[in-house]
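Researcher: Structure for this, please.
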Amino acid sequence: MLQLNHKKLEVWKSSVGLVTEVYLITKTFPKEEMFGLTNQLRRAAISVSSNIAEGSARKSNIERKRFYEISRASLVEIDSQIEIAIRLQYLKKEHEEKIDVLINQVFAMLSKLISKT
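Model: Predicted structure, token format:
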């Protein structure tokens, strides 16, 4: 694998942890959600880390910042989808608390990264 700068960013490392948690959570969702909420959550989670990586590889600050903003928007999408999963009672309390901490952590780091870019 390539040894690129984004892999040194704490926000990227945390976002990969978020992907892992989303996959663990969605394994417990009903099978009829495989092509619905499960798929949406997984794609949004992957988008967060992917856009951080792609943004960090961009030459200009304007491009870099745009990818970080897209990443943060995907994070907000995850937050909304988790809220839906909670209302549908798909999430256990311990998963709910852990994902909440991760979402808030990554959101804060991304916001800081965007403001510094």
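Researcher: Any notable elements?
Model: The two ends are 26 Å apart (CA to CA). The chain has a mean pLDDT of 94.
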